Amino acid sequence: MEERYRQDGDFTMGEWAYSELRDEIPLLLSEMLDASRRIAHIVEDMKDFSRPTRAQQLGPFDMNEAVEAALRLAGSTVRKATDHFVADYGAGLPAAYGDFQGTVQVTVNLVTNAYHALQGKDRGIRIRTRFDEDRNRVVLEVRDEGVGIAPEDLPRITEPFYTSRREEGGSGLGLSISSRIAMDMGAKLAFSSTVGKVTTATLEVPVFQEKD
Question: Distances from the Cα of 52 to the Cαs of 20, 46, 98, 112, 143, in angstroms?
Answer without folding.
Answer: 51, 12, 19, 23, 31
